[in-house]
Hints:
The structure holds 2 protein chains of 2 kinds.
Chain A: E1 4-15, E2 18-29, E3 33-37, H1 44-51, E4 58-63, E5 69-72, H2 86-91, H3 97-106, H4 113-118, H5 126-138, E6 144-147, H6 162-173, E7 176-181, H7 184-190, E8 193-198, E9 200-205, H8 207-210, H9 213-220, H10 224-232
Parallel strand pairs in A: 3-7, 3-8, 5-6, 6-7
Antiparallel strand pairs in A: 1-2, 1-4, 8-9
Helix pairs in contact in A: 3-5
Chain B: H1 5-28, H2 32-51, H3 56-77, H4 82-100, H5 103-111, H6 119-148, H7 150-155, H8 160-182, H9 187-201, H10 205-230, H11 234-256
Amino acid sequence: MSDFILHVSRLKVEFNKNLILDDISFDVQKGETLAIIGPNGAGKTVLFRTLLGLIPYSGEIKWGPLVKLGYVPQKLYVGSDLPLTTAEFFDLKNAHPHEIHRVLASVGFENSVDALLRLKLGTLSGGQLQRVLIAWALIGHPQVLLFDEPTTGVDIAAEESIYSLLHRLQDQENLTILLISHELQVVYRYATHVLCLNKEGLCFGPPDKALTPATLKQLFGQNSAIYHHQHAT
Amino acid sequence: MITPVILLLATSAFVGAAAGFLGSFMVLKRMSLVGDALSHVALPGLAIAIALHQSPILGAFIALTLAVIGIWYFQETTALYTEALVGVFFTTALAIGVLITPQPDLLEALFGNIQNLGPYEGLIAVGISILIIVVTNLISKQLMLGIISEEMARSLQIRTKMVNFVYLLLVGIVVALGVKFVGTLLMGALVIIPAASAKNISRGIKSYYFWSAFFGILSAILGSLVSTSYHLSSGPLVVLASIVLFLLSYFVHLILGQ
């Protein structure tokens, strides 16, 4: 079972007696892209935090032997006044200069690495920051990338969307990706597997099998027709 | 016992450096009020130690350790809004502390009195300050990463809860040391203000750490010098010195537009 990356079984998370996640089970194999979808407040971010070991839980979470994780947050809650340059941000991970150049080039900063490294982290644009965060996660060659809600609207480098970037990196770096999303077209285009979440796991499997009209209605309620329509067009 | 001025200034400098360095994280963690409130807890510990004829610094340290465990517990295990809770609990500690501290000792406990510093106390304070700076430096990367994103820290297997606990414990120790100079009412300021000043003029993290410690040293030395020259309480003078430095750093910030 060398392809085994993650096994989650009967996972349950409670906050102050409120059930946030209930009876979640799924598996991830090497090279897969698992999209976790669900409405706001469904517990997607809580699931990530639990997988990272930040939240107490009952049930089972088993990572493959020696699996190294990279985590890409949606954004950083730091002000533009945080006295931290991009170079120092990479230094927090004890990254070697040539590795910093390698990962920054791989997310599209080939020609502007030195200028970028001198900038304060808090002054980067949304698109720059997202790519820097991806590059940061890639330091040290993780096998798994956890990606909290990649935003499609930001100004990623010329013509490359954040998802095609992820796709390319996945091939280059041999990555397994777990990502949170609320955009169904992303799930259909890029995910090999999907986990529907609304406190409990409502579906799990390849998108075209798992995402039945009934599941979508259960997941998104009235709006499911719109979501599905977007996919169809 | 009159301590040579050199030792007195050296002690001020080291405690100031340790307080400033630690404070740099507290300002970024947006925990400034916690630092301030924490310093108030030293008072009841100090009063109880005096009543039991024990070392006041030891009493302050024990009270602070208990408080640190309390803060850490609430921070890590509950979803409660800790800052309000900390405010209520620690103001209570201050009120009780004022009531049970013997009158002759009260002013000194509240506002510090550096002239009463003995040579051994001074040397021990220098040693502990160096230890604090070394340990803080060792955990600085983990700590900073935890401030930026707990999830990113965890993805690197950093034990954020443990790091936070060690950090708070160091803050407790530096506050206990500082009580002698600055007093329990104002010690929080020596942790926070130098770092706030450093933030005004720093672009990168290394210069931020450096200026935090440097402003801590300068505030403590200037305050102590004026205090010994004019026989005034050292606490208010140290804090005023740090505020003057803060204003200067703010003007530099305006001029450089950083």
